[in-house]
Amino acid sequence: MESYADSLCAVPVSLIGTFVLFPLFGFSINSLSLFGLVLAIGLVVDDAIVVVEAVERHIEEGMTPREATLQAMREVSGPVIGIALVLSAVFIPTAFLPGITGRLYQQFALTIAISVILSAFNALSLSPALSSLLLRPRKKTRGPLGWFYDRFNRVFGSATHVYVNWSRLAIRKAVLSFALLAVFAVGAGVFGSRLPSGFLPEEDQGYVYLALQLPDASSLERTDQAARKIEDILSKIPGVQYTTSVVGFSLLSLVQNTYSAFFFVTFKPWSERTRPEEKYTAIKANINKQLAGLTEGLAFAFPPPAIPGVGTSGGFQFILEDRTGKDVAFLANNMKTFLDAARKRPELGTLIPTFLPNVPQVFVDVDRDKVVKQGIDLGQVYQTLQTFMGGFFVNYFNRFGRTWQVYIEAEGDYRTDAKNVGQFFVRNANGDAVPLDAISTIKNIAGPEFTLRYNEYRSAQINGSAAPGYSSNQAMAALEDVFRQTMPNEMGYDYLGISYQEKKAQQGVSPTMVFGMSLIFVFLILAALYESWSLPFSVLLGTPVAVLGAFLTLWLRGMENNIYAQIGLIMLIGLAAKNAILIVEFAKDEYEKGKPLLEATLEGARLRLRPILMTSFAFIFGMLPLWFASGSGAVARRILGSTVIGGMIAASAIAIFLIPVTFYVIERFAGGKKEKPGAEVTAPPSIPAIKV
Hints:
With 692 residues, this protein is of the alpha+beta class. Helices cover 56% and strands 15% of the residues. It has 21 helices and 15 strands. Strands 5, 6, 13, 14 and 15 form a five-stranded antiparallel β-sheet that branches. Strands 2-3-1-4 form a four-stranded antiparallel β-sheet, with helices on one face. Helix 18 (543-556) packs antiparallel against helix 21 (634-669) and helix 19 (563-592) runs antiparallel to helix 20. The protein starts with a helix and ends in a 23-residue tail after the last helix.
């Protein structure tokens, strides 16, 4: 128990120290920084475990706690420093990425780097002090617990013998081992290319948006009746708690009109939504299914943006642009052609345009020649039309402790028919009253409700989402492919909201380049630490195994390769290197002391298997809450947890057999100290029972 207390002391010290430094970097306690701290919990205990395990091993060999601590620190100070530097350096390239992608990376990068550095400081100062004070030689435990310990020690000792023998066989079959490593690297590339890619996942935020659109120019009363019918439908859907309606407004176009409505559909708390039909995707699908039979108009549910404030909705927002300045009909015809082709693509689900080119309208054509000839002020003509037919704001006044607005407008009966403009008058230069119908003509026309200007081009906005089983990246690629096939040269396209940020991220530094730069930074750190250009290869060559495990896990769980998965992949570089450092550091020291290369390699593998498994399983079990996450933000947590857990399982189960091979081969051919050709290799000493 003393060893556990020693190791666990590193966790609160490192995490509290990280919180203290948050203000220096302008960080707040938000979802991203807490993500980093959750990952850090599994990392900060590793250094303390390495120190405590080494001290216990020397105590079991007969040393006093003080002597064991001093000897252990001579052995593990290098690995502890190396692990801290690698886990910190792996995120250095991400801290310099621009835009929203860089901002997301930076929260993780600095949070983890700070906590790991503090953990290393604790492992080099606090952990040795506590080890010398708390750790004592173990007495043999009796009873059922003693029987369990004895059986465990025997099984672990046998497993260690098997591991060393398999490592020896892998070294003898080095060509086959490197071929297997190449297969893992190719497999990681194949799985990575076939895995759906995206930007940010669609999360269960506890609510969805719902839009209603009636036929063009429908009355507000008719829209209100349809909205009440939708409220009644939503009240019967499992998982929906209440609905807030806004009649006469469209969130997608941000335009007020009489034939649109907008709804906030709030779900029940996550703890109350336990049945399958009450999950986010099921509720949204059920809503759209129920609204498909609505005869009054078109209604559909859509998600809020993944990052609040970045756009008005989730999914994608595609902008069709008329870049030649032609009339509205040109844009309308091209939009129809584009939508007809896009709706045939399997990658695309809902496609809703906000551009309405043929809305029935009443046009008042003022005869300016008559206005001028009669000496009427043209501004008064338009102001009179606005005041009586629409409304005119006068001022504010205070009464009963509240502020009231004053508007002037005609009574409702006089505003229902445009022909009533003849009952409104303006004064001419002689002071005579002139009816408005004497100087204007009423026409019924069809035209756009509003015109969107994007990058100064007349544009049409199309909101939509990817079909089930496809990612946002695949949906955007399908949109661009349809555009190339159907649109003339006069048309262009762009993105809005979260889609714009995703496109900017694709056009910037690619995830592959970030991953490569992280590898280079870790390589340079290891080269400086070991003063060797060859030794870092033996540390990093096991990375493809971890990457393959991560991709395979994401594929088996039906997840996409988005920004959270990419953060997990970068982290796996440091985690895979950590396992290799523990073996390589000890094997290197033994080899430099004069042991034959094979014996030094196998001795390092034998002695470091236990701390490798302890730190790996501590991290994996620490990440299990992310694997089984639920509630708000659960999708991102599950993706990140699946990535790091799958990668660490592969690194701990497969890569540990390849690390001795890579170290042996690289050291053999690196041009350093060589063994004598006929030198006899002594077998590793027998493995003593390892006590728990």
